[in-house]
Recover the amino acids of this structure.
């Protein structure tokens, strides 16, 4: 977890593994870092402040950490950048954890048999003709 519940402050460093895309924006989000964390899950950190001028378009193995009040440090294999920004927006993909916690519902036997029959019929010319006839009669 990167923040204390109820807080918007980043309390510990966020580290990317591999390539990190640095996108500059003209709107509310002036800098967005997107890549993958050490577990291989997508990770995005967005700042509502302009990007440091010397920051390249891509970093490698970068870490983002709070340096002081309202200041962040981006440290990567290519260098280190310090800049002022309001609290960061951190986005993680929780889909994998969600689907591990809630297993899929088993498909009812009648539905499986229905689709097996339909797909079996669709695999032959005579079956397709029968399906067309049944479809036209309803």
């Amino acid at each position: 977890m990167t923040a204390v519940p109820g807080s918007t402050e980043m309390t510990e460093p966020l580290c990317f593994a591999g390539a990190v895309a640095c996108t500059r924006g003209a709107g509310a989000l002036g800098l967005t870092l997107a890549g993958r964390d050490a577990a291989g899950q997508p990770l995005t950190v967005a700042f509502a402040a302009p990007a440091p001028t010397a920051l390249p378009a891509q970093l490698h193995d970068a870490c983002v950490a709070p340096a002081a009040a309202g200041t962040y440090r981006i440290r990567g294999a290519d260098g280190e950048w310090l800049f002022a920004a309001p609290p960061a927006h951190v986005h993680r993909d929780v889909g994998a954890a969600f689907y591990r916690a809630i297993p899929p519902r088993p498909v009812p036997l009648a539905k499986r048999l229905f689709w097996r029959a339909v797909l079996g019929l669709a695999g032959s010319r005579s079956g397709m003709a029968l399906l067309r006839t049944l479809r036209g009669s309803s």
The chain has two domains: 14-97, 105-137. The longest helix spans residues 109-122. The helical segments are 95-101, 109-122, 125-137. Residues 117 and 123 are 10 Å apart (CA to CA).
